[in-house]
Structures are given as structure tokens and as C-alpha cells.
Amino acid sequence: MNTQELIDTARALVADDKGLLAMDESNPTCHRRFALLGIPQTVEARQAYRELIITTPGLGSCISGAILYDETIRQQKKDGTSFVKALIDAGIIPGIKVDAGAKNMAGHPKEKITEGLDGLRSRLKEYYQMGARFAKWRAVIVIGDGIPSTGCIEANAHALARYAALCQEAGLVPVVEPEVLMDGEHSLQRCSEVTQEVLRMVFNQLYSQRVILEGMILKPNMVLPGLACSSQETVDEVADATVKCFLQVVPAAVGGIAFLSGGQSGQLATERLNAMNLRFKSRLPWALAFSYARAVQQPAMDIWRGQAANVPAAQQALYHRVNCNRAARRGEYNPSMEKHD
Fold it and tell me: Which of 147, 252, 312, 333 is deepest in the core (most CB within 10 A)?
């Protein structure tokens, strides 16, 4: 393990007001989104869509790293260039999703545990050899009646820490993603309480597993009211609650924070990130970046719809969203930027 290399990579992932592009959806998830738009659910369509993303002009000016799926990291452009090489040539660090998904947790109704530790050491070695320099593992925490339980939080935190330690051993920066879902009727305050509890447990486990905090990235949820909650706080109130929560529980040594979008609309995810950086950036010990999937890709997919003729317009839409998020990292985003036609 080269500690300095890990730290340098973690810093590079949040440098220059850039963020991460999460293009690591599983094939079933990808197919569900394709089906809604009438796009063929085939390996060829998946390859074409991912090539559209990777070859978007100017992508590397806003995106520091791209999280790939196992299929994607092995794919090539139509001209035979590997996706990994195409990303590196664009100045983007290749990353890889390595968890095996969230499954029902035994003895814990309505709760999930993320699997994938078996055989992870050898998989990480292969991904490193293929050119990946960071990885991602997502834990899912649900808020509801009597949940999350301590047992669920503890088990997921332990798995995240085990994964992170194995990543660093293999030379990969771990992106640690404990996601408190925004589904439900819970209040902003309840989300803050659960997020703090989860993050405290995660960092306790990371310490226990001797993970180098400077050589990791945290990918958390923002502190948000549940989608079905009757009270929906303002953008500034969400920013305040999120930053206050993180200052309580996230060590200053952490390499950076890259928020997940978690089902927020593209514009709202941008506005909330902007508010955090505008109001707090100069006082924070870590960068507040983004690691969005649908919040940057959905407009492009809506335009593309599997048609080669739509690729330039789809790429323009993708670039627009990542450029808005880069502006949000500087606290310079303005909704007037959305009038880009």
C-alpha cells in the first residue's frame, strides 16, 4: 500500500471544483430506465449509451472521476479504444463499483445489508490492474417505524470499513457511501439524527479497521426531509442542516465529501450543493463535491432515446448539468444558467 498515492488520488478526486460521475448502475437498473424511454435493453445499447457519456466533449473539465460497473470497465468504444483509456485520455480517473447490492437483512424486516466482501481482495487486484484507482460501496439505510436498528447500522458500517481497508491495501481510494434514503414521511430533524448516528458508527468502524481517512472519500446523503413529509424545508435550510450535521461527526482528516443525489431532481441537487458551498465553503475542513448519477444523466438519456442522431444534443445536456454542478462547487450557480437553449 502506497499511502501517499492514496492521499494524492483522493485529493485529485475533489480538486479544481470538479466532481464524480456515477455511471455504475447495474444492468437491471439500466434496463428499467431504458424501458421507460423505449430504448432496447441490450448490451449494444448499454455500450452505446456509456460511450455517449465518456466521449462527451469537455467532460474532463468538470468531472474528476467516473464510477464504472463491472461490465463497463471491460467495454470499448466502437473504434476499439477501451473505456478506461478513453477516460484517462480525457483527464478522468477511472473508478469501479464493487459491492454486490443491498439484500434483505436476516432478522431485520424492511432493512438491508450490502453484500460483496467474499472474494473482494482478488477483484480489487484485478480492477487495479485494469486501471481503476478508486472504488465505491453503497450501504442503504431506511428510516421508518422502529428503524433503522442499531444492528443494521452496525453491520453496514462494519462492511463499509472492511471494504475500505481492502481497497487501500490494493491501492484503490475507497468511496464510502452510507446512504440514508429520502423515501418516507420523516422530518428533516429525523434525517439529521439518523445520518449522525450512521456516520458516527461508520467512522468508529473505519478507525477500528485502520483505514487512512486522508485516503478515502465520503459519499453521503444530504440531510433532507422524506419525500412524503408535509414540511419541505428551503434550499438554505437543507444546506444549514447538512453542514451542521457533518461538522458534528465527519473528521477533518477525511479526503473529501462527494454527495449522492439520491433521487433529487438535477436542478435541486445543484441548488442545494451550491447553497452549502456559498454559505460555508471558507469555514469547512473538507471539500464539498458531488457524485451524481441520474441528477446529471437523466436529461441526456431523455434526449438520446437510443438514437445515434441524438448523441450531440444528449452530450450537450450532460455537459450542461456537470458544468452547473462545477459552478455549485464554487458557490456560483444561478438558476438562470438553466436557460441554455
Answer: 333
